[in-house]
């Protein structure tokens, strides 16, 4: 059996998830071991990818079996974007109550209602355009998510059209820190508690400049009231992890910059704890973003 057909058999199409103004597709993976009041992770693929290919690369459904996690995979249609990118930079697809964000919100509600998901344990992650759309969802529906992980993405509302998006991807013209904070605060009337934020980026990314990662961190620092240098830095699987803790000592932001890595999702496919499969934009660098993100969210089984 090919890996693509294997993935297709693992993921199930989600039908009838409410209005779909963004004209997206939706797939789910619910492990047999999934308990009532279990967690949900929303997984957003990158450009040129599909939900199935991103699942193969990241290993999310394998981890879901291991840790009893429900998964939702929103999918872009080529009719909406020629390279299959989420339209994170379009005004009609980057605000609450419209377009792709509303489609994803309706998908989440359908899965939550249909599988008795714990509403306090809903998380979202994505890479590249999926990472940028993760920023959109965290800003426009912050009350829905306990946490989000943005991989090779961009800060919320840093661009409002395709030309601005290309400039921002190249690392130019990002909003000021004051603007970054205001963009999230002005997206809703929400006042907290805010979702925790995990940021991942390769320091050799020539598709989305890694200055965008530090902008994402700064966008959320003031919101979480953790401005300034990290609370502490540690090494994880050979790479630095910077963390910011709130007044209660809880880690609210973590930031991994992966040395010598280009554009993609960092994976570690080998060994007993290996997940995913190396491929285009699925980069074998000896650290599993999938497993560590799930661990950050408290979803992995303790050893």
TrEMBL record:
Transmembrane segments: none annotated. GO terms for cellular component: extracellular region. It comes from the Bacteria. One of its GO terms (molecular function) is hydrolase activity. Gene3D superfamilies: alpha/beta hydrolase. Keywords: Hydrolase, Signal. The keyword Hydrolase applies. NCBIfam families: esterase_phb. This is Polyhydroxybutyrate depolymerase. It comes from Yoonia vestfoldensis SKA53.
């Amino acid at each position: 059996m090919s890996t693509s057909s294997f993935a297709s058999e693992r993921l199930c199409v989600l039908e009838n998830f409410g209005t779909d103004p963004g004209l997206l597709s939706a797939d789910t993976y619910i492990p047999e071991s999934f308990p009532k009041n279990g967690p949900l992770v929303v997984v957003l693929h990158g450009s040129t990818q599909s939900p199935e290919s991103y699942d193969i690369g990241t290993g999310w459904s394998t981890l879901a079996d291991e840790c009893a996690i429900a998964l939702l995979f929103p999918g872009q249609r080529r009719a909406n974007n020629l390279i299959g990118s989420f339209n994170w930079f379009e005004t009609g697809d980057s605000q609450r109550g419209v377009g792709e964000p509303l489609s994803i919100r309706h998908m989440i509600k359908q899965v939550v209602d249909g599988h008795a998901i714990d509403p306090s344990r809903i998380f979202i992650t994505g890479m590249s355009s999926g990472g940028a759309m993760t920023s959109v969802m965290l800003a426009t529906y912050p009350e829905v998510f306990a946490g989000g992980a943005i991989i090779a993405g961009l800060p919320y509302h840093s661009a409002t059209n395709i030309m601005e998006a290309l400039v921002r991807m190249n690392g130019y013209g990002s909003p000021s820190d004051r603007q970054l904070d205001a963009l999230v605060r002005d997206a809703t009337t929400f006042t907290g508690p805010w979702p925790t934020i995990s940021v991942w980026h390769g320091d050799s990314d020539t598709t989305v400049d890694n200055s965008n990662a530090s902008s994402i961190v700064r966008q959320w620092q003031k919101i979480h009231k953790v401005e300034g240098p990290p609370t502490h830095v540690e090494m994880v699987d050979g790479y630095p992890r910077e963390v910011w803790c709130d007044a209660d000592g809880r880690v609210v932001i973590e930031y991994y910059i992966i040395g010598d890595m280009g554009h993609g999702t960092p994976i570690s496919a080998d060994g007993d704890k290996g997940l995913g499969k190396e491929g285009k934009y699925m980069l074998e660098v000896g650290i599993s973003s999938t497993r560590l993100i799930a661990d950050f969210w408290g979803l992995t089984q303790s050893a």
